[in-house]
Amino acid sequence: xxxxxxxxxxxxxxxxxxxxxxxxxxxxxxxxxxxxxxxxxxxxxxxxxxxxxxxxxxxxxxxxxxxxxxxxxxxxxxxxxxxxxxxxxxxxxxxxxxxxxxxxxxxxxxxxxxxxxxxxxxxxxxxxxxxxxxxxxxxxxxxxxxxxxx
Length: 150
Prior knowledge:
Radius of gyration: 16 Å
Number of strands: 5
Strand content: 25-35%
Shape: globular
Order of helices and strands: EHHEEHHEEH
């Protein structure tokens, strides 16, 4: 059986943050995530798409690409891509409380990294940013570990 996937493109409008959050939660429900894990995924995707809305396109509406897939039938893979201003210093951007906009708390990347098993951030100034996040259900991960050790 092929791995399931879902691709969506939408404008970087604030109302699309909730839409993306719902889409990802619905797609993630194919795996054995707990309700707490689904909520973590929802927060992570909210932060990722909000970053596109607020930071990637600060003075205009731009394109956001969202790709979801199941990797090895047990891992949720989320890719969020924009074609906006990019991030000049990724390490600085990952620091808690750093924000390119002083009125913001600067915790989005921190939340994304802490709620997901893996997070990769690629960006080029004036070309855009891609965030790739992965998460496995805790129960599925524990089950897979038990199967390997027996």
